[in-house]
């Protein structure tokens, strides 16, 4: 039993990263991770010994996220929480890489949650298409479509951001 708990604890950084990519609010993401871990520990017998808990935990987290989004939609509340005061303040970047990273993160947050989840699962977390489709509970073709549309949407957002930055530079 201790081996299972230790393996689950080893996945917390990945769970946090995925939760923060789904939600803009750090506290809400931490709450999602906590709910996921709580559910996993209660249902520890459902996890097959010898397998990595990663796919199992991500499936639990995704289901909790979908449930949370459904509750928000039923209540009519905003799906995305506002940025924290510190995150909303503009600060000049000291390095070009920092600007590019921020633009990519902002663009990723701007696309739909379904497409963002698919992209994060495959591109960032390294799951195969089959594993990601299984975790998200969609057919592989749907997952591939979401990834393709998400990438296209990201390209459009990032091209627009680059154009706006170039215009600002010319105006100076």
From TrEMBL:
Query: Does the keyword field hold Transcription regulation?
Result: yes
Q: Which UniProt keywords apply?
A: Sigma factor, Transcription, Transcription regulation
Going by the entry's taxonomy, the superkingdom of the source organism is recorded as Bacteria
Pfam families this protein is in? PhyR_sigma2, Sigma70_r4_2
Instruction: Give the RNA polymerase sigma factor 70 region 4 type domain ranges.
Output: 102-154
SUPFAM superfamilies, per the entry = Sigma2 domain of RNA polymerase sigma factors, Sigma3 and sigma4 domains of RNA polymerase sigma factors
For this entry, the protein name equals: Sigma-70 family RNA polymerase sigma factor
Species this chain originates from: Mesorhizobium calcicola
């Amino acid at each position: 039993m201790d081996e299972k708990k230790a393996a689950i604890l080893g996945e917390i950084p990945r769970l946090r990263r995925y939760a923060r990519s789904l939600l803009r609010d750090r506290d809400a993401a931490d709450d999602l991770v906590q709910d996921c871990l709580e559910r996993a520990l209660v249902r520890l017998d459902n996890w097959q010994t010898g397998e990595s808990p990663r796919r199992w935990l991500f499936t639990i987290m995704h289901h909790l996220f979908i449930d949370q989004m459904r509750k928000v939609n039923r209540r009519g509340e905003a799906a995305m929480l506002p940025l924290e005061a510190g995150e909303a303040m503009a600060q000049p970047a000291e390095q070009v890489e920092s600007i590019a990273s921020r633009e990519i993160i902002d663009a990723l947050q701007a696309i739909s949650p379904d497409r963002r989840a698919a992209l994060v699962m495959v591109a960032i977390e390294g799951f195969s298409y089959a594993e990601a489709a299984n975790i998200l509970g969609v057919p592989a073709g749907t997952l591939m479509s979401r990834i393709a549309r998400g990438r296209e949407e990201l390209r459009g957002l990032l091209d627009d951001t680059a154009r706006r930055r170039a215009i600002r530079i010319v105006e100076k």
